[in-house]
Design brief:
The complex is a heterotrimer.
Chain A lengths: L1 H16 L4 E7 H5 L2 H13 L2 E7 L1 H10 L4 E4 L2 H9 L7 E13 L12 H11 L3 E3 L5 H13 L8 E3 L4 H11 L2 E5 H6 L6 E5 L6 E8 L10 H11 L2 H8 L2 E2 L2 E2 L2 E2 L3
Parallel strand pairs in A: 1-2, 1-3, 5-6, 5-7
Antiparallel strand pairs in A: 3-9, 4-7, 4-8, 4-9, 4-12, 10-11
Chain B lengths: L1 H15 L3 H34 L5 H12 L3 H12 L14 H37 L4 H11 L1 H16 L3 H7 L9 H10 L3 H27 L7
Helix pairs in contact in B: 1-10, 2-5, 2-6, 2-7, 3-5, 4-5, 4-8, 5-6, 5-7, 5-8, 7-10, 9-10
Chain C lengths: L6 E10 L2 E11 L4 E5 L6 H9 L6 E5 L4 H4 L3 E4 L10 H11 L4 H14 L15 H13 L5 E5 L7 H16 L3 E5 L3 H7 L2 E6 L2 E7 H4 L6 H7 L6
Parallel strand pairs in C: 3-7, 3-8, 5-6, 6-7
Antiparallel strand pairs in C: 1-2, 1-4, 8-9
Helix pairs in contact in C: 3-4, 3-5
Classes of the chains: A alpha/beta, B mainly alpha, C alpha/beta.
């Protein structure tokens, strides 16, 4: 019995130590749901030998993980939070990698009539005026923060029983919106990859304010000496390489381009 | 409804196609929960017996706390373990966060109160039977606890299985401390949460059916193994 | 050479929740013989045995064994009215007290098998104790009590729920036990059994030892009116 227990504990602990060139990267749900990571990670492994372990969380949690030194780098899309992260000395620098865009999704009969809106702000005003159900991530994520900044730019305070803050990731929020027939703001990738579309349709997109910049921020090794700074550096070099440009720009779902590589 | 059917079909193909990813995460689920169960039993069963045998002043309170902890939301346990194991936490130097070991630790904390509480309930009855006899025979505290654990093993098995059930189906805590990292800490429950998030209901359901099947399988296996051994009720 | 006797009990008393169960009791017991504890229901027979054995807490007075108090219980064994069957086989039930005193497993099981034979349970070694009949249970309990070779054996109405045949088998066992010099203190409500087994009698009434005498004087000529009435089968209050 004793040997059995010891063996089990040993097996549990040693199995975790066997990965040599591994590093942890916190990424946002929207990035992971796009499916792009499934294309990039194997190529990274092949080119650099690095096993990138993804922690898929909201931007808020990704920043926290980076601050605590529980990951080696973060890949997020919320400029303000990123700047605060750097100002606190938690990261070494910020490297822009690529962008995608946000879209407004809603019931295909479009009761608030946002399909013809001439700007994102106008679309939101239309939703608020119609008091049409709107699902918000409400989870302090990059997407949530973006949504809030759009409301404030539109001059609308989103309040009332039509505004549902679900406090969940992109996928769960899309599920909720689909279930309720509500409007929702999603990144294009998550929406295209989302399998449970029900009666929902993409109604509005294209306003430049909806562009969504992804940036790579290494965790500061001065604050957290244990981070895999070397691997992070290698990974960053790969992310801005021509290989990465080719893979990112050519990634398509249903024939649509999702991401635009813009690293310099 | 069609999701259910499709899920069942997909579960069938995953199982009979010996899907390597499915096998990997199922085995990891089993390894994490069985290890946690083993560790939890080593702690909880003697604790349950001790509480049955020993009268001490704080006993009532310990039992009340155990019973209350049974209802502890796993995500709270996850957060507490996270704070301890985080690089900036007191145990950060161990580097255990986002490893199966962290998941095992969280599950141990979740299932120990459950197993200890059920074990205590069962052994209290046995102890009221044995009390006079063991005292008359001058059995030491340790000998009393050992006698209860051995003779009550059937009931303790039920306690352990309850712990297994709570562990294998748990998602809140292991999501927080494990991080659902592909090929490292992804298990059945976190994979289900992930697929649900992607709106892949059929795949999520398929994994759910497999989880249920594994839980039933382990229960049956343990009952059959222990059943062949005895004729009596205990 | 006796570790326990002579025993002198001085003003011993035991309570439960403030109510006196038995006592104060004064008694002097010699190293040999079989003491039968008799008396009406509720007189305190069980409580007296439990108090002497040390499993009911002493509320007042003293129980002076010939040896140190903490050693005394090791030389005693107790058979309960409802025998406690451990959830194990007959053999493991018998081996258990030996295992407690550190006897090796194989030897304990061998000796258990021998004792099972002595009380007629030799064919049931691998049977679960919890499925035995009442008589078999009581025989197992007695063998389990005797296996550590105690100087003193307490029995609390061991035959109260048994039929005649089982009662006779148990009495035969107890005769043998007394013959090898084991001291017996036993309660019973069966006056025939008290006459057959007893060498001395303690007649209890209202929690006190009302009369204590050698069996061959007590039964033909009880000294007190209550004892006489009890032996006559009258209701004694």
């Amino acid at each position: 019995m004793k040997r059995l227990i010891l063996g089990a504990i040993l097996a549990a602990t040693t199995a975790t130590a066997s990965l040599a060139e591994a590093m942890k990267l916190a990424v946002t749900t929207s990035f992971h749901n796009s499916g792009l990571s499934d294309i990039l990670l194997p190529q990274i492994k092949a080119d650099t030998g690095i096993e990138v372990q993804l922690l898929v969380v909201g931007t808020g949690q990704a920043i926290r993980l980076g601050e605590a030194g529980d990951v080696d780098a973060i890949l997020v899309h919320s400029l303000k939070a990123e700047e605060a992260f750097l100002a606190g000395g938690y990261g070494t620098h910020r490297r822009e990698i690529m962008y995608n865009d946000f879209v407004f999704v809603g019931p295909s009969d479009d009761p608030a009539g946002i399909a013809g809106a001439n700007s994102a702000a106008a679309a939101l005003v239309a939703i608020a005026d119609a008091r049409a159900d709107f699902v918000s991530r409400g989870d302090d994520s990059g997407t949530h923060k973006k949504e809030l900044s759009l409301w404030s730019a539109a001059g609308v305070v989103p309040e009332g029983d039509w505004y549902k803050a679900v406090g969940a990731g992109m996928g769960a929020s899309l599920n909720t919106a689909a279930g309720m027939g509500a409007y929702i703001m999603s990144d294009r990738a998550s929406w295209l990859n989302f399998a449970n579309k029900a009666d929902q349709a993409l109604l509005f997109a294209g306003d430049p304010v909806l562009f969504n910049q992804y940036a790579f921020l290494p965790v500061n090794p001065v604050k957290h000496p244990h981070v895999e700074a070397e691997l992070v550096e290698k990974l960053e070099a790969w992310l801005v390489s021509d290989t990465a440009r080719e893979l990112i720009n050519s990634y398509r779902i249903n024939g649509e381009t999702l991401f635009t590589f813009n690293a310099r | 409804m069609s999701d259910l059917l499709e899920g069942a079909l997909q579960a069938f193909w995953l199982v009979f196609g010996r899907d390597p990813v499915l096998i990997e995460i199922s085995l990891r689920s089993l390894r994490v929960t069985l290890t946690a169960l083993l560790v939890a039993c080593v702690i909880a069963l003697p604790l349950g017996a001790y509480l049955a045998v020993r009268r001490f002043r704080l006993r009532r309170y310990v039992i009340a706390v155990l019973n209350a902890l049974m209802g502890l939301p796993p995500v709270v346990v996850g957060l507490i373990v996270y704070v301890f194991l985080s690089r900036s936490g007191p145990l950060g130097v161990l580097g255990l966060l986002f490893t199966p070991t962290a998941m095992i630790i969280a599950q141990v904390i979740i299932i120990v109160p459950l197993i200890a509480s059920i074990a205590h309930q069962a052994l209290r009855e046995l102890w009221s039977d044995y009390h006079d006899l063991l005292i008359s025979m001058n059995a030491s505290q340790g000998q009393r606890i050992r006698a209860l654990l051995w003779d009550g093993r059937r009931a303790l098995l039920t306690a352990a299985l309850a712990g297994f059930g709570r562990g294998i189906g748990e998602v809140g805590a292991i999501m927080v401390v494990g991080g659902n990292i592909d090929h490292l800490t992804r298990v059945l429950t976190t994979a289900i949460a992930l697929e649900t998030g992607k709106g892949e209901f059929a795949l999520a359901l398929a994994l759910g059916f497999i989880l249920i099947a594994i839980a039933i399988g382990v229960n049956l296996a343990i009952h059959m193994l222990s059943g062949t051994e005895r004729e009596g009720r205990w | 050479m006796s570790n326990l006797f002579p025993l002198s009990v001085e003003g011993a008393l035991t309570r439960r929740r403030g109510r006196v169960l038995v006592g104060p009791v004064d008694l002097k017991l010699d190293p040999t013989g079989t003491t039968m504890v008799i008396g009406p229901n509720g007189a305190g027979k069980t409580s007296l045995l439990r108090m002497l054995h040390g499993i009911a807490r002493l509320g007042a007075g003293r129980i002076n064994w010939a040896c140190e108090e903490h050693e005394a219980q090791r030389h005693q064994a107790f058979v309960f009215q409802q025998p406690v069957m451990m959830r194990r086989t007959v053999q493991d039930n018998l081996a258990y007290p030996l295992r407690l005193s550190g006897v090796k497993r194989a030897e304990a099981r061998d000796r258990a098998a021998v004792w099972a034979g002595k009380v007629g349970l030799g064919a049931m070694l691998t049977r679960q104790a919890t499925v035995l009949s009442g008589g078999e249970r009581q025989k197992l309990a007695i063998a389990r009590a005797l296996i550590r070779d105690p100087e003193l054996l307490f029995l609390d109405e061991p035959c109260s729920s048994l039929d005649g045949r089982a009662t006779r088998e148990i009495e035969e066992i107890l005769h043998g036990v007394a013959e090898v010099g084991t001291r017996i203190i036993m309660s019973t409500h069966d006056m025939g059994q008290a006459r057959r087994l007893g060498t001395e009698v303690a007649f209890l009434l209202h929690g006190k030892v009302h009369e204590f005498a050698a069996a061959d004087t007590f039964f033909p000529a009880p000294a007190t009116a209550q004892a006489r009435a009890f032996l006559n089968g009258d209701i004694v209050e």
